Fold:
Amino acid sequence: MEHTIELAGATIDTRNFINGERVATGDLFANHSPIDGSFLGDIHQAGENEVNAAVEAARAAFPAWAALGPVKRGELLHKLADLVEANIETLAMIETMDNGSLLRSHIRGVMPRVAMNIRFFADWAINKLHHPAFETRGHSNNISWDPSGVVALITPWNAPLMLATWKIGPALAAGDTVVLKPAEWTPLSASFFADLTVQAGIPAGVFNVVNGLGKVTGMPLVSHPGISRISFTGSVPTAKVIARAAADNLTPLSFELGGKSPMIVLGDADLDLAATLAVEQYDNAGQVCLSGTRVLVHHTVADAFAEKFREKVAALKQGDPRDLETDIGPQIHPVHFQRISGFVDRAKAEGIEVVWGGEPNAELGGLFFKPTLFKNPPVGSEIVTSEIFGPVLTMQTFDTDEELIAMANGTEFGLAACLVSGNREHADAVTSQLVAGTIWVNCFFVRDLSAPFGGSRKSGIGREGGTWSFDFYADVKNTVVSPNGWKE
Ligand code: NAD
Structure:
């Protein structure tokens, strides 16, 4: 039975990674590249037995890893980050082949960020994770962040290793041990990363990877009573299933979920900047949770803005994501492609005006969908309320700020917002009324790992970043010490 894939000059093991060893199963599922549909290899799916073995291995490894302390753990995590940096080009090509996102972004931005995610949280645990002791009637309150146990990490396919390391970094730095279940459409980078943990000297059982479908592999993991935390990034429907499973064990949850964020252009905005930021909403072929998919533009500047936006979209190059000149690659999977097409076809059938795109890229074929803009969709239409997770934006105009706020906040989500304005007071007046975990003013996608990141409403539960991450992964403890009773 095959259990390796040769890709990007590297050998990737397609078996599970449990207790530092590779574990084959008879249950295989095929992995294809979204670029051209080519078969990459068969992945060994973990069932309940393998998941239980992974949790047991992580439980056995936990006491020693927790006792190691943040400084020693930090040394190992920095070695791991060094190895990620030494393998940036390989990791970049693996991810591009597996999920179709741009090789250019992976080399220049994403994979260096993966290394930084690990370093940042290792250092934060050493240098920044403290709260000054304080007195209560002569008693001192001493706050600590204690390792909590085995954490289950469940991740999506749109930025596989990047999103996984936002979780792996703080969890390992906090002294927890990890069982990661990557998305079934993009298992390869996590497997290669597992080999790097071995090279870094991270002890067996501290980091484990189980592969498979949500129902087969994810469910036994999130239902396991031996798990101390579940951190999940994915869709709202899956989050509901996981929350129900976690309820039996009262396992604490962190959820980073979907969005339908507004991209707001005020009447006083710099329209060139607005158009530059608007075109970024098509990044990663629109498969970005934070994407501002609802463009809300003041009616006085709508035509001028739309013209500038059109010019920038026309200049986008769609094609093979391995080509460093490409701006938009394919969608991830035929099932997802069909889902996007379904939204677009229903909107067209409703009579909603297509400004550009609105169809697959017939020239390229396969999973390439043209960047699309719909105009003036009616209130409540699914194209403005549902997360599509593809290169599909809508544009609506507004008159008053009151009308804008109602539109901007008018979905069940609250993940992000992007606002373009030339007037600070005006911008402040609007941002103070928006419901969103992150708001970017005259910029997009600027993310400092020490800042809180997460969503309001159905976009999530909790925040990641800096101490917020450790508040989740660790058991926060207050030890109250009396001035009395000491013998010395
Ligand atoms: P998804 O919910 O379908 O799957 C996410 C992960 O959950 C996968 O690993 C999947 O196998 C697993 N899963 C599915 N069913 C499960 C179950 N019953 N038990 C345990 N695990 C299960 O999401 P997706 O399609 O992979 O990703 C796209 C979604 O992720 C979008 O909604 C997007 O907005 C969201 N997302 C959010 C953020 C954020 O930071 N807020 C970032 C990226 C993606």
